[in-house]
Amino acid sequence: MAEHVGERSALLARLRQTSHTPVLIVGGGINGISTFRELALQGIPVLLIERGDWCQAASGALSRMIHGGLRYLETGEFGLVKEAVEERNRLLKNAPHCVFPLRTTVPVDSWGGGMIGAGKRFLGLGASPSRRGALLLRSGLALYDAWSGRYGALPRHQLNDTAATRQRWPGFADWVKYSAAYYDAWITAPERLGFELTDDTLQACPQALALNYLSLKHSDGEKITLSDTLTGEEFTLQTHVVVNATGAWIDRLNGALSPTAAGQKLIGGTKGSHLVLRSPELLAMLDGEMIYYENRDGRACLLFPWYGNVLAGTTDIRVDDPDGVICEADEQRYILDSLRFIFPHLSLSDSDVLYTFSGVRPLPASSAATSGAISRNHSLVLIPPGRERDFTTLCLVGGKWTTFRSFGEEAADRVLNLLGQRRKVSTKERAIGGGRNYPGEARKPAWIKALSRESGLSTERIADLLSRYGTRAQAMVKFMVSEPDALLHTLPDWSRNELRYLIRYEQVQTPGDLLIRRTPLAVSGQLTAPAVEEITRLLAHERGWTAAQSEQERAAISSQLRREHGVHLSEV
């Protein structure tokens, strides 16, 4: 098996020879990637396309939680919570390089509050969000523990009285009377995990094909035309099934594929925005834990440590147009105000915000009175062939990041049925990317020392690479020592060959791919104007860009960081 099979030029050459594919998946978010993986592993020569980069939209804008969805118990979505807990524990096992247990504290203001509202929501009577009391929370956590105990070994929840709560959290607001502590999980690099799933599949299934920066341009009902968004080159092919995994853009793609589908509304998306804050005081108070709490309006909010800073969110605002969503000023104020609600003595301002991000959740169209009442479950909608269209369209509606594997499995099984095929391989126990053969805590020092001796790199450097890439670090280290290397002038914790490896073997096409999705450099607040310039020059050399192209790309990423993420690059 080839060590690297994802070079874009080779993939495009194969696409030029393709006139028919049984399945075309449109949308390289986590659900499209998962469906691609599930189908390719069954031997289906499936094609996955993404008009931007992998996990560029909503799949890269999640709250970085891998969780069962405790609050969904209140709306009676027991099946969803059970499924999510099971998939959470699978990710802890299959992706241990980037999914970790996360102790979570829930502050509450009363013993029996919220019972009436919870009852109404459970019965589907549309009650507004309201604060939950300790008794209600304990009931939900008991179910949570039961499922966690069946599917994993995370510690059971604890319910803390006022004294214990104050001892651990002296900075809590006076309204906090009790607290509960339980375990979920978090993910360090969701965009990387999405890429690793794609790359794993290309290596294991040579008949499969996956390309970023490739869009569906139009269809005449029989043939579909694709366009390379980087070069303008077009490709025409036929397919039996189109899987519409475009998330918030599902209705738009359906309308492009068939005029009669233009009026069918499947998606009622809501926008979620987040802030990354530099607050040493708040970081110290959290001490490795997450706080999951209800704001004044009953909206669920969260904050937890994130790359030496603090991640805080989120909003839940209905939107009709998913293009160009950003964290607006009023959303930033809302999140900062919510932090003052839980920590009233904490001093925070707009100047503490390092980075913002926003995405549109692809929720099902709903007439629910509040965004929080819209189901977070997933579903499949089949649009059969008709007079205007020779192919079947399968739409992936909704879905949580945590349940991507099971949703992809369900979608793939539906497609296999359409093709008259059967499942051959299960992904339930299949390790992902850098989680394959990952050393446990007891074995990690020996693993690091062995690779250090073999490569000549320091154990500290190997430890950094292991934390960033898991066991994929082995191939990277082999590449790094194969030619002269040097640390970046502007970011001495990173080397030129480390970035060259990502550029050459991880389908990096733009500075944003490298700075936002393959590395945490942007989201962790490490970027300066000189760093962006140095890295863009490196990418330009690898891609053969002219000086003018390099400058254009540098200006474009600087503008994108400012416009979409609130990052104003400093000169130092």
Textual characterization of the structure:
The protein is α+β, with helices and mostly antiparallel strands. 37% of the residues lie in helices and 19% in strands. It is built from 18 helices and 18 strands. It has helices at residues 8-16, 30-40, 78-94, 115-122, 134-151, 162-168, 190-204, 250-257, 280-286, 329-342, 404-419, 444-455, 459-469, 473-480, 496-505, 511-518, 529-543, 547-565, and strands at 20-26, 47-50, 65-66, 99-108, 158-160, 178-187, 209-212, 214-219, 224-228, 234-244, 270-277, 290-294, 300-306, 309-313, 317-318, 353-361, 378-383, 392-398. Strands 3, 4, 5, 6, 11, 12, 13, 14, 15 and 16 form a ten-stranded mixed beta sheet that branches. Strands 1, 2, 7, 8, 9, 10, 17 and 18 form an eight-stranded mixed beta sheet that branches. Strand 13 (300-306) and strand 14 form a beta hairpin. The radius of gyration is 24 Å and the shape is globular. The two termini are 45 Å apart.
Largest sheet: 10 strands, mixed
Total number of strands: 18
**CA radius of gyration:** 24 Å
Query: Helix coverage percent of residues?
Result: 25-40%
Structural class comes to alpha+beta
Shape label: globular
- Mean pLDDT across all amino acids: 91
Which residues form runs of ≥5 with pLDDT under 50?
Answer: 115-125
Number of helices: 18
Bin the strand percentage: 15-25%
Report the span from N to C terminus: 45 Å
